C-alpha cells in the first residue's frame, strides 16, 4: 500500500524548497471558460517552469489559493505539471498584480 502521507509530505517539501530558494519568478494570468481568472507564480527548475503558487478567482468572486502550504482542497489543487506560457495560453502579468490577488 502506498503511504499517501509520505508522498504528500515529499510533494510539499519539493514545492517549498522551490518557492523558498527561487531568485527568479514569473507571473501569469489565464481566463477559464467559466469566466474565472487563474493567477500563477512559477519558478524555473531544470529547464521547466514549475508553479509554486496558484490562485483561482471564480466568476462568483471566490478565491482559492494553492501552494506548498495548501496543496489541495475540495475545489482543486496546485498543478503538478510544468507550464509552457505559450502553449498554455498564459498572459504575463506584473508581480504586483499577482500579489494583489494572492493577498486578497
What does this structure look like?
The chain has 104 residues and is an alpha+beta fold. It has one domain. The protein is built from two helices and seven strands. The protein has helices at residues 4-21, 95-102; strands at residues 26-31, 37-45, 48-57, 63-66, 72-73, 76-77, 91-92. The strands form two sheets. Strands 4-3-2-1-7 form a five-stranded antiparallel beta sheet.
Mean pLDDT: 94
Outline the biggest β-sheet.
Answer: 5 strands, antiparallel
Low-confidence stretches: none
Order of helices and strands: HEEEEEEEH
Query: How would you describe the oligomerization state of the chains in this entry?
Result: single chain
Question: Strand content of the residues, in percent?
Answer: 25-35%
The strand order across the widest sheet is: 4-3-2-1-7
Overall number of domains: 1
Helix content: 25-40%
**Separation of termini?**
40 Å
Shape: globular
| SSE class | alpha+beta
Radius of gyration: 14 Å
Task: Tally the helices.
Answer: 2
Number of strands: 7
